Q: What sequence folds into this?
């Protein structure tokens, strides 16, 4: 599985979130399996199918949010599930978030 982390996603207005999911639904190259809200970080974690070109997906999502600089998009290199948290590794950083 391949993951993209959208920091500050929950800070978006409801309509912008709806437009984003319409965009995802209409994009041919974005095959999402699952999504997970990370409340402590106001973030969204998107889980893509293995055949997804994750760098292209990242570019498309960044393009969608180009007028929203507070949203940052990161490809997650690794996820480690602990009993009560997730450890996300991206950009040579580790982020521990509660389930």
A:
């Amino acid at each position: 599985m391949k993951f993209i982390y959208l920091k500050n996603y929950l800070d978006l207005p409801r309509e912008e979130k709806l437009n984003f999911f319409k965009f995802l639904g209409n994009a041919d190259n974005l095959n999402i399996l699952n999504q997970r809200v990370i409340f402590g970080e106001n973030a969204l974690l998107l889980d893509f199918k293995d055949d997804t070109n994750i760098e292209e997906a990242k570019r498309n999502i960044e393009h969608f949010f180009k007028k929203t600089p507070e949203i940052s998009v990161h490809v997650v290199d690794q996820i480690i599930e602990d009993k009560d948290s997730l450890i996300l590794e991206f950009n040579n950083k580790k982020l521990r978030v509660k389930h």
Observations:
- The chain has two helices and seven strands.
- The chain has one domain: 2-98.
- The domain at 2-98 is CATH 3.30.70 (Alpha-Beta Plaits).
